[in-house]
Amino acid sequence: MIAGIAHKTDWAEQYQRKLDQVARNNKRENAKRRDWQYVPGDRVLLKNDAGAQPKMAPLYSGPYEVIAVRENGTLVLDRGRYIETVHIHRVVPAKSKRGEGCHKDQDL
Q: Do the domain assignments include residue 56?
């Protein structure tokens, strides 16, 4: 009792308010999230670890080819000499370079 005033807490109401707050927060966070559907053969860039890199080091390495997509949110990447399993949040889709796919021998 605070200051001599009796207070009865409605725990069911408190619990419901907390659930509503969690739902609102999840909706706000997920609104900006992009869902990428990777398939084997796609090219991706792998995010470098921030703690082990100097300031001016590139943020991403690659591109690497996706070998397999697993149900638990991981990708299997071909990194040249070895194969690595990484979480989907550590990769971004690789964009093709400008002019890639164009033929230089075409008459304009």
A: yes
